[in-house]
Amino acid sequence: MVHMTLVPEGELTLPSGAGASSVNASSLHASSVNTELAGLIKASSLGDEAAFAKLYDATAARLFGLVLRTVRDRTQAEEVTQDAYLDIWRNSSRFDPDLGSALSWLMTIGHRKAVDRVRTAEATRRRDTAYEARDQTAPFDQTVEDAHRNLDGQRVRRALETLTDSQRGALELAYFGGYTHREVAAMLDLPLGTAKTRIRDGLIRLRDTLGLEP
Amino acid sequence: MNNDDIHGLSGAYAVDAVDDVERARFEAHMAACPQCQAEVASLRAAASELTSTTITDPPPSLRESVLLDISSVRPLPPRVTSEAAQTSGSAGSQGPSEPAAPAAAPIAASAATSLESKRAERVRRAPVRQWLAGVAAAAVLATAGVVWHPWSSDTGTVQLTAMEQVLQAKDAQRIEKKVGDATATIVRSPSLKKAVIVTADMPDAPDGKVYELWLQQGQMMVRAGLMPSGPANTVLLDGDAATAQAVGITVEPAGGSESPTLPPVALISLA
């Protein structure tokens, strides 16, 4: 039952900003990487802190980047990321590879944490202040520095170009903005119910263009 | 929202672009809809790819903090099916022994049981006057970390019609109450005479304790069920919600109490 042997000895090849030069083209959605991540999650559930450290090293730039993009404030992003990894550790036994990829599981937890944070009134106020002060938002078609060096990022950007502008806009506000579909509808002056359709259609097109299992 | 619409919420749900009540409604639906389960999984996979466009290295200090955190926290055990869990029927069996109840499973279990097993009306009562005195001194809930299980999967064997009906009723009324950082939302359908409570960010009840729900019926507080543990739950209340004036939440010993322990955590007026 104990799959300790699945834990890879070497470094994972998941892109992490600074070390992105060593990234291989299909690393991210390659099932082998997800299998390795799943092995690390399994080992973590057995209390293996070294495996968890590897899991962190392989995924932290992805999760932190997502959280930072959503909450925008660096200090809060660090808090939320820390909280997310604690949750990942605690709940590692609840990950089921049959129900989704390891990366998807990790990012889903991080995203929910980030969204919960921005939806509290206090955080919203602080975020808006930070946003005005720094204006560090970057729409999809602007490029976050590291993403240029990241082949997965390029692949996803190209896939995003296949979405209609309205699908992309709604998806961006929902995923990175942390807004509800009702809020998105109001922001884009759409009839209620339209935003959720665009979000769904956009995700379906993204999924199919990336060749993910439907 | 009717049932035709609810499938269309899969994308918004997959990227957390739903409010607490929509989430509860969709999870209740999804528990019995393998098609939506599969779609949500695939859409979440697609959404997670978006993070390759925002890669940003965290500061090294964060790694140290995370590793320090986990060194003092024990990973939760895997979910196992015990004999007791298989045979028990009440929502209370989800009780406080499990530190973090799954988000989806208790919804299913409590919905199935509280309506079907219309228990012999073991109505327990307590005077409202006493209760209201306690509200003034109501304890404020402390902050708690959110534990969330995106792949909770104990699905497929449950009937969810009762809760779904309330959540989707045409005459559904929604009353939201903040208590500290927690949110409790009551959705009541007068025509169905039923109410559902949806909680978010609820801190765990103290060790050996459980949150109990009450309906105020005239001058009496009537037991309406137990909350499963975990920060986010959706529970169908026992009893006639059409005639009730308020919903109460108290902290009680495991298994619940005959009468509410004061002060209550919250009293939510339905008027």
Layout of strands and helices, then pairs:
The complex is a heterodimer of chains A (214) and B (271).
Chain A: H1 31-45, H2 49-71, H3 74-90, H4 102-119, H5 121-134, H6 151-160, H7 165-175, H8 181-187, H9 194-209
Chain B: H1 3-6, H2 10-14, H3 20-30, H4 34-49, H5 60-71, H6 83-87, H7 105-116, H8 128-135, H9 161-167, E1 173-179, E2 182-189, E3 194-200, E4 209-217, E5 220-226, E6 234-236, E7 246-253, E8 266-269
Give descriptors for this structure:
heterodimer; A: 214 residues; mainly alpha; 9 helices; globular; disordered N terminus; B: 271 residues; alpha+beta; 4-stranded antiparallel β-sheet
Report on this structure.
The complex is a heterodimer of chains A (214) and B (271). Chain A has 214 residues and is mainly α. Chain A contains nine helices and no strands. The model of chain A is unreliable at 1-11, 15-29 and 132-148 (pLDDT under 50). Chain B has 271 residues and is an alpha+beta fold. Chain B is 30% helix and 20% strand. Chain B has nine helices and eight strands. In chain B, strands 1-2-3-6 form a four-stranded antiparallel sheet. In chain B, a hairpin with a 2-residue loop joins strand 1 (173-179) and strand 2. The radius of gyration of chain B is 19 Å and the shape is globular. The relative contact order of chain B is 0.16. The chains are: A mainly alpha (214), B alpha+beta (271). At the A-B interface, helix 2, helix 3, helix 4, helix 6 and helix 7 of A face helix 2, helix 4 and helix 5 of B.
Structure summarized in a few sentences:
The complex is a heterodimer of chains A (214) and B (271). Chain A has helices at 31-45, 49-71, 74-90, 102-119, 121-134, 151-160, 165-175, 181-187, 194-209.
